[in-house]
Amino acid sequence: MKRRVTVLMGGASAEREVSLNSGRAAARALEDAGFAVALVDVGRDPADLAAKVAASRPDVVFNALHGRFGEDGCVQGVLNLMGVPYTHSGLLASAAAMDKAFARTLFASAGIPVAEGRVVRKGECPGDPLPRPYVVKPINEGSSVGVYIVRGDGASPLAAWPFEAAEVLVESFIPGRELTAAVMGERALGVLEITSERGFYDYEAKYAPGGSRHLMPAPLPPADYDECCRLALLAHRTLGCRGVSRTDFRYDDSGAKARLVVLEVNTQPGMTATSLVPEIAGHAGISFPDLVRWMVENAACDG
Questions:
Q1: Which residues contact 51 (CB under 8 A, 6 or more apart)?
Q2: 120 contacts 129 by C-beta, under 8 angstroms
Q3: pLDDT at residue number 126
Q4: What is the widest separation between alpha-carbon atoms in the chain?
Q5: Average pLDDT of the segment spanning 133-162
Q6: What is d(CA 293, CA 105) in angstroms, rounded to the nearest whole number?
Q7: Which residues in the chain are classed under CATH 3.30.470.20?
Q8: Which has the minimum average pLDDT: 3-17, 113-127, 162-176, 195-209?
Q9: pLDDT digit string (tens) for 176-218?
Q10: N or C: which end of the chain has fewer CB within 10 A?
């Protein structure tokens, strides 16, 4: 009898459409891998989620949710209470990674390089909290949602405060190249470079066809490529991640000595046609169906 996998997708965050695409793509790959697949479109009601998961009678849940509620430990807590194994990281690692301010504190304590930064509360800082250029980002959103780069003499978004939350993270802007590295269990799969004519790898560059170009493997000096892999695995371990994760970097090679800076760890990276982890895995010889099969076979439950 085929093992039953329930794919959670959708959600109520700003990344809902991305999650729907991830869920459908993962479901097709899971069927190709030989599983019986059910799809569940998730809302904000945990009781409704629990009822739908129970009705689908899964052996494993494949969590294809992105953003708040699905990626921040909330859904993981529901599944822990239900005793259902699920893919990706558990409750604690998911919550820690989603909170960018908390995660960067953990990274710094582990010797992982991060940009200079601070948390700013609404109304606290009418001027510039850091020398320009700097980046303002929500503490707990993904896919570059709500990110601003403050340059030149323009007004800072901190004055108008277009953010839902009462706090945001402000970090020094790191010039250079955009890199990302995938980790699968205890193995770094490789490093990919992302380029975009938009100048910033924003939401449109991430998901619109032709919005970005991927260079795999990233054209780096071998020592820097290896260091990127090492840091990705260290970040994965520092947060206590399991399954698959993706670590995003800036690579500043404008000076005499290049430097790598970790931006964040994605505990549930995208699984769409333009997603990065399947591309990195493919270059490492791991097909998309084999990747999702491994994720299901290594699913776990904290409860």
A1: none
A2: yes
A3: 72
A4: 64
A5: 84
A6: 33
A7: 97-113+176-285
A8: 195-209
A9: 999 999 999 999 999 999 998 755 544 454 445 556 899 999 9
A10: N
Active site residues: 15, 143, 207, 246, 248, 264, 266, 270
CATH 3.30.1490 domain position(s) in the chain: 117-172
Show the tokens assigned to 265: 């760890």
Structural tokens at position 269 = 């990276």
Which among 249, 101, 266, 100 is positioned nearest to 175, based on CA atoms?
249
Top-level class of domain 4-87+293-297: alpha beta
Task: Classify the phi-psi angles of 257: left when phi > 0, otherwise alpha if psi is within -120 to 50, otherwise beta.
Answer: beta
pLDDT of residue 206: 47
Work out whether the CA dihedral 21, 23, 27, 29 comes out positive or negative. Answer: positive
Q: Count how many residues are written for the chain.
A: 303
Domain spanning 117-172: CATH 3.30.1490:
yes
CA atoms of 84 and 61, how far apart (whole Å): 7
Question: Are 269 and 89 a contacting pair, CB within 8 Å?
Answer: no
Entry pTM: 0.91
Torsions phi, psi for 72 (to 5 deg): -105, 10
Q: Report pLDDT digits (tens) over 57-113.
A: 999 999 999 988 899 999 999 999 999 999 999 999 999 999 999 999 999 999 999
Instruction: Enumerate the CATH 3.40.50.20 domain ranges in the chain, comma separated.
Output: 4-87+293-297
> Bridge partners of 168?
120, 138
